[in-house]
Amino acid sequence: MTYRTVKLSGWKVKLSDDFPSGFESVIASSANLPNGQRAAFERLTSSRFARVLKCNVLFNAQVYSLIIKHYFNRDIFDIFKAFIFPSRAEKAFNAGQMLTQNGFLVPPAVACGRKFLITLEVKDSVPLYQLLGKLPAVEKQKMLEQFGQTVGQMHDKGIFHGDLRLGNVLVKSASCHFERSEAKSRNLLNNNSKDNFDFYFLDNERSRKFNRLPMRLRIKNLVQINMHRGDVDENDRKVFFDAYISQQPQIDAKTLAEKVISKTAKRLAAKGVINH
Predict the structure, then answer these.
(1) Distance between CA atoms of 220 and 218, rounded to whole angstroms?
(2) What structural domains does the chain harbor?
(3) What is the number of helices (H) and of strands (E) in the chain?
(4) Which residues fall within 8 angstroms of residue 84, CB to CB, at 6 or more apart?
(5) What's the distance, CA 121 to chain centroid?
(6) Predicted model pTM
(7) With contact defined as beta carbons under 8 Å apart, do 7 and 114 qualify?
(8) What is the pLDDT of residues 108-146, one digit of tens each?
(9) Burial letters for 111-134: b for 16+ Cβ neighbours within 10 Å, e otherwise?
């Protein structure tokens, strides 16, 4: 995507060129998060330093499903930093562009201002952790293998993801259709031995690209993934790690695994979680 800069209420806002002239009027109202305008807003889970809403907007006879993330100041320093450095929203936008340019997927950004980022909803996608207990064993291992390869490729290109928890990864597949029911997350799967999974990365504001990824950040990302204890066993972790290492031929796999396991155990213990 390419972007043009428009002025809204005195602020400069990046707006995707893929959207028609006049769409900034939608952004102007959405940025203020009005209630009761257009389709109803659905509040999504977020940290206490952000508000995330989902809504459908009808514009020029087309419906757009938008995710609106409004960033709050975490402390007084955020107020002062905003005058000197890019804001959290701008960092998330810039990191998303960097990931896209390097061949990785993020929800397409519609608009970005100082305090908000608006993206398109990734249709028919599900957070990765929700699939771990729903996919048949063969498909689950295939997904974990492809996820390991993707993270390995990301690290091989020197990219660190700032918060690589499994809730920040959406999964989409051509042969998997996920239907939300009242129980939420009912899975309808059409088996396809050639199935490929796409991974969309969220919460990218702290993601960075290095000439060479520091080992401590590589370990940090792997620990963030390894912290998930639900619906995975040692074999699942091995499938992921082997696929990851296949993209990192220069890395000592045994030493790296030992460091990740040790640090994960310490973090789990600090949280009072029994490590199995």
Answers:
(1) 5
(2) 3-120 (3.30.200), 126-270 (1.10.510)
(3) 8, 14
(4) none
(5) 12
(6) 0.87
(7) no
(8) 999 998 889 999 999 999 999 999 999 999 999 999 999
(9) bbbebbbbbbbbeebbbbbbbbeb
